[in-house]
Each structure stands twice: as structure tokens, then as C-alpha cells.
Amino acid sequence: MFITFEGPEGSGKSTQLKRVAALLRERGRDCVATKEPGGTPLADRIRAILLDPKETEMDRLTELLLYAASRRQHVVEVIRPALDRGATVLCDRFTDATLAYQGFGRLLDLDRLRTLNDWATDALRPALTLIFDIDEEVGLRRAHARNEATANNEGRFEAEDLRFHRRVREGYLALAQAEPKRFAVIDGSGTVEEVFENTLSVLKQRVPELLS
Known about the structure:
- The chain has helices at 13-26, 41-50, 60-84, 95-105, 110-121, 136-150, 162-178, 192-206, and strands at residues 2-6, 31-35, 88-92, 128-133, 183-187.
- By secondary structure, the chain is α/β, with parallel strands linked by helices.
- It has one domain (2-211): Rossmann fold, CATH 3.40.50.
- It has a five-stranded parallel sheet with strand order 2-3-1-4-5, with helices on both faces.
- Helix 2 runs antiparallel to helix 3, helix 3 (60-84) packs parallel to helix 5 and helix 4 (95-105) packs antiparallel against helix 5.
């Protein structure tokens, strides 16, 4: 089973993915937790370029193609082999992030982005996508605080203006509305424990076999 975790900056999706992965492993499931951009040595090197705050002059198409290259390697080296052996794969961002950030955020053509996504992934689709929704201002404050606390040097997107982040959030919600059978929107504004309980509730409803 392939489940992706999505959301704007500071939504808490990465924390929730780690908690779900830990729970599944406690129950004896073969669970692969991974992330984008990254997930392989080559993809991690691309990630370092994409999220480097010093890369202020990166063209939006260059950005898009780097994401596609990273994703292709990730699928070929990590995601597809894990799915083929029957593992559960939890991925922190996937193709919907491209639609939200490069499509709605950067205003690139969505149909072209979908074609590129399909090409890079051999049309791989998640069984379920969880979107952790949060007000863009609140999320950015969280993200900045996290970066300062951890000396994180991956803040290129946090440097974008509020209008960009508002478009990203609205993009995610539009994707969820257009495809409700695959997406579930979870309020990311509560405590970590509250959001985790809501996440488990959604998983029990949407994929009951996962937690059985």
C-alpha cells in the first residue's frame, strides 16, 4: 500500500508520518518511510540544491525538472521495489506536491505537470493521500521556528511571500475537492497528539486493513 503525506509548510505532516510508521512497525508491518525530494543518495543531493536558501535565482522550470529527476530515482530505487515486495510505503510529499507548489504556487500549467509526473513515475498513484491543512501564516511561523531550533538550512520555500503559500494551500484543497476518494484533509492546527488521533481515525476509516 502506498500512502502519501502532503501539506503546506509547517503543517506537521512529517511528524505524523513518523508516528504512523512507528505504529505500523510496532505491529509487525514491513513499512518504508521516505520523503521527497530525496529518499536516495542521488535524490538527496538534488534535494540539497532545491531547498538551499542561497539558490534565489533558480528558474521555475529548472526547479520543476530537478524535482522530476529526484522523483524518478526515488521511485525506481525505493518506492517501486518496496511496493513490489508487499511493503507499506509512507512518503512525505509526492506528485501532488508538484501540482500544489509548481502548479498553483509557481503558476505552471497543471496538465503539463501531470504529464511530467506520469512520465517520471510510470503513472504511479498513491492509494491514499493525507493533506494536513493549516493556515498559511500559522504554518510559516511553525516552519521558521523549526528551522531556527534545528539550524535547518533547507528554507528556500519558507522565504517565499505569503501569497505563494496561500496559493499552495488553496491548491492542495482544490486537489482534494476534485478527487475525494483518494484524498483526506486533516486539520493540522491542533497538538501533535490531537492530529495523530485524527490521522489514525482517517486511516481506520479509509484503509481499515492497514491497522488491523
